[in-house]
């Protein structure tokens, strides 16, 4: 994967795995308690989605995701001078919203696999995927508001705004699948909504719960927004060229769904023979009735044209650029140096991951 980590040496001493595990360890019990509030069978369906049980209801230790957002919420609290545990309700709320979006996205996109397992709609049906997604969104707000503090109210406002932007981004993503051309600017706006908004919320919500003022929270959101764009740029690379063993998705997964992701959009905007040939193929694809029967070679040919036109290289460079902008934002507020190093290390992790 042609992504490059930050050149900052300070992040080398930070154990990112430990940060992710801390977020998972502190958030998971509260997350499980929240899911237990759901009526049957939604509680079981949600537990399957989170990887706590298998399709037969037996305990499972399936991959529950990277846990980047919970880790950021806990560090966010520390950025405000509070204990990391202060950010746990925010971490859980953000994780609930994130998984609400995954349940609905999998259904809308027709994805049959997530984290190397059948998706919820595939196992339990579309109705349960919709209902459980809705329930997780409601739980997210409940978890915050039941704290009963002014800070909880501020945190909830940020979460609901981020959720609305996330839904805006998903709507844009779907609409772009039916258009022959999408500009790079439109694609970045969509990805800023779909991915950047919730990551921005994750990295500010703990600080808000810890008593940070709006300026501090806004700067942390700026870091999170650009980190989200870097995160999505890497996701777009993985969506075409990622190893299915690592990603848990099909080969050429984004091409199969006709997604106008950054590599595709950048390649179409580049001009030149490869760009023109790609545009002709994708225009024909949009009118095809047998797209589902395309061979691996046909998808590979489209991926090769995207790379030849420069879409892969441009997206990797954009990931690095957004990564740099995110780190620059941290200079706008005072925070403990160790917290700054942790945020830098997590940003580095985002642009070099393989899944």
Automatic annotation (TrEMBL):
Coiled coil: none annotated. Keywords: Magnesium, Metal-binding, Transferase. Pfam families: polyprenyl_synt. InterPro entries: Isoprenoid_synthase_dom_sf (IPR008949), Polyprenyl_synt (IPR000092), Polyprenyl_synt_CS (IPR033749). It comes from the Bacteria. PROSITE patterns: POLYPRENYL_SYNTHASE_1. The keyword Transferase applies. PANTHER family: (2E,6E)-FARNESYL DIPHOSPHATE SYNTHASE, GERANYLGERANYL PYROPHOSPHATE SYNTHASE. Belongs to the FPP/GGPP synthase family. This is Polyprenyl synthetase family protein. It comes from Streptomyces physcomitrii.
